Amino acid sequence: FRAESTKGVRNMNRSDIVVFPHPVEPDYRGPIAIKNLAEDANVKITDSSGRLMYETTALGGQAIWYGTDYTGRRAQSGVYLVFIVNEDGSASAVSKILFLN
User: Of the four listed, 14, 17, 23, 88, which is most buried by Cβ atoms within 10 Å?
Assistant: First the structure.
């Protein structure tokens, strides 16, 4: 059995955050995992102009995104920013996801 939840990290560090797959290839339609997050961290994904694409709370130390916005449209080619903040706001990080379509 494989679930979307993982154990959260105590000290979230930008250099430890892993996004997979990266880059996201044109034919990929599965989950995009953002790992090594603080437990229950808030995760926001925006396009390069700052438009919010998706927001979620990490399940343990991992957040999952399926590459769509709130209306279900697939992300266009480009760089997407991942903003991560732990539950009490004392730690934050930014990562990137590259989409190729």
Answer: 17
Q: Both tokens of residue 57? A: 């709370």
The per-residue b/e assignment along 62-79, b for 16 or more CB within 10 angstroms, e otherwise, is bbbbebeeeeeeebeeee
Residue type, 42: N
pLDDT digits (tens, 9 = 90+) for 52-91: 999 999 988 899 999 999 899 999 999 999 999 998 888 8
The amino acid at 1: F
Cα separation of 70 and 53, whole Å? Answer: 6
Q: What is the pTM of this model?
A: 0.86
**CA separation, residue 9 to residues 14, 35, 41, 67, 93 (Å):** 12, 10, 10, 24, 13
